[in-house]
Amino acid sequence: MNIINAYAPHMGRRIEEADRFYADLATTHNKLPRRDLTFVLGDFNAKLGQPRDGEQFVGNWARGYRNRNGHLLAAFCELHGLTATNTFFRKRAKNLTTWTQRRVGHCIYNQIDYLLSLASILKLCTNAHAWGGTLTNSDHKLVTADFNLRDVPRRRFQTHVARDEETRLARSRLYYDEDARTDYQRRLAAALQDDAETLSTASPQDRWDRILRHAYTSAEDSVGYEPAISKGRFADPQLKTLSYLQQQLRLEIYNNTNADVHQLRKTRNEILHAIRTRCLELANQALDHQAEVIESLSTSSRVFEATRALFRKPRPRQHIRDKQGKLVLSTNRANHLVREHFRSLFVDPSREVVRADCCSYRLTQPSSSAPSVDSRTAAPPAQTPYQQNYSSMALTLSPNRSLSSSIKDSPQVNISSLVPAY
C-alpha cells in the first residue's frame, strides 16, 4: 500500500505552478507499482463540483462549482483512474465540506480536500466522512475513509495450483475438431486391422478389453490429455496460447512502469476479442455436433434427447429423515425437527431458571436479621440506633426456599451465598 500526501497551490498562484505540481504528482504516481494500492490525499485547493456527462471519478455529493484547479484535478483523476471517495457518500453538509473561513457576517464552506483511491477498489470503500471540531489550529477538517481491505490480498495474490498431472482425455476435441476426429478414426481402424487375427480367436470378454484398449490408445495419440482441473469448457490449443499471451500482457501492464500502457492495453483487448470469437466458434461446433447426433436418432428418441439437452438436470433437494429413517416432506415438520435438534445441543433442560423474588421484606431488627442488599429496602434511620458489624454472619439457603424468606428467618448472613449456583 502506498500513500501520497499532496498540497496543491491555491487559486491565487499562477497556472504554471499548478501545472508543475500535477506533473510532479503524476511522475511520483507512475513510479509506484501498479499492482499496489495507492492513495493520493491532501489539500488540493480545488472544487470538483457536480459530475458531468460520462465522468466516473466524482460522485453525486460533491459541493460547489468546478474551478480552474478543479479542472486540473479532474484531468489527473481521469488519466490515472482515481476517484474522489469523499464525494460518493450522502452526508450532512457539515460532513461534506472540508474547509471553513469566517468573514464578517457570514462563513465560507468549501470542499477542497479529497482522498483519491483507485476506481477498481471503490466498491471496497464503506464510508467517507469529514469531521469538524478537531482540536487543531487549522481551518481544514479531518477527512477519513473506511476501506474493507480484508479480501484484497486474496484477490491480488492468488495461489495457482500447478496442473502437471494430466489424467483425462481431451474428448471435447472429437466434437468440434474435424482433423482430430479423422485422425482418431484412422488410428483406431489401423489398430483393429493389425489385431484382427487375435480378436477373431479371443473370447468375448478378451475381445472387448482389447478393443477398448485400442480405442483408448488411439485417443491418447490423436487428441491427447487435458488438465485434471480445467476451468475452460474446451481443451483447444489456440485458446490456450491466446490465454497465455493475454496473461503475460496483463502482468506487463501492472508491473512494468516504463512500458507503453495504452499500446499494451490495446493489444490485450484485441487478444480478448480473439478469445471470445474462438469460444463462440467452438460452442457453435459443439451445438452442431449435438444436433447431428439428435437428427441421427429415431423419431421418438429425438424428442427425449432434445428435451434432455435443453433442460439441465435439476439439483436434488436435500430432505431430512426422522429417527425411523423416513423422509420428512412437510416443511413445517422439517423446521420443527431442525429447531429441536439445535435446542438439544445448546439448551440444558436440567438447568433451572432463576426466578425473581416478587416479595420484599423490610428489616426492622438488625440484631437478629440480615442487612438489606438493596438500599431501597433498608431500615429507616430511626430503627437503627447503633452501628453493627455483619462480617462474621453467615446464611444457609435451601433450594426450596425463596431468598426473601431465608433472609427473614435466618439470623446469620453471608453475602457471597446470595449468588445462584448453576
Number of helices: 12
Total discrete domains:
5
Order of helices and strands: EHEHEEEEEEHEHHHHEHHHEEHH
Helicity range of the residues? 40-55%
- Amount of beta strand: 5-15%
Rough shape? flat
* Low-pLDDT ranges: 160-166, 368-379, 381-404, 406-422
Based on the coordinates given, report the CATH architecture of the largest domain.
4-Layer Sandwich
Please count the beta strands (DSSP E, at least 2 residues each).
12
Spatial order of strands in the largest sheet: 1-2-6-3
CATH top level of the largest domain is Alpha Beta
Rg for CA atoms: 40 Å
CATH topology name of the largest domain, in short, is Deoxyribonuclease I, Chain A
List the helices and strands and how they pair.
Elements: E1 2-7, H1 15-31, E2 38-43, H2 68-80, E3 82-84, E4 99-103, E5 106-110, E6 113-118, E7 125-131, E8 142-147, H3 152-156, E9 168-169, H4 173-176, H5 178-194, H6 196-201, H7 204-222, E10 225-226, H8 237-255, H9 261-295, H10 299-310, E11 320-321, E12 327-328, H11 331-346, H12 403-409
Parallel strand pairs: 1-2
Antiparallel strand pairs: 2-6, 3-6, 4-5, 7-8, 9-10, 11-12
Helix pairs in contact: 1-2, 5-7, 8-9
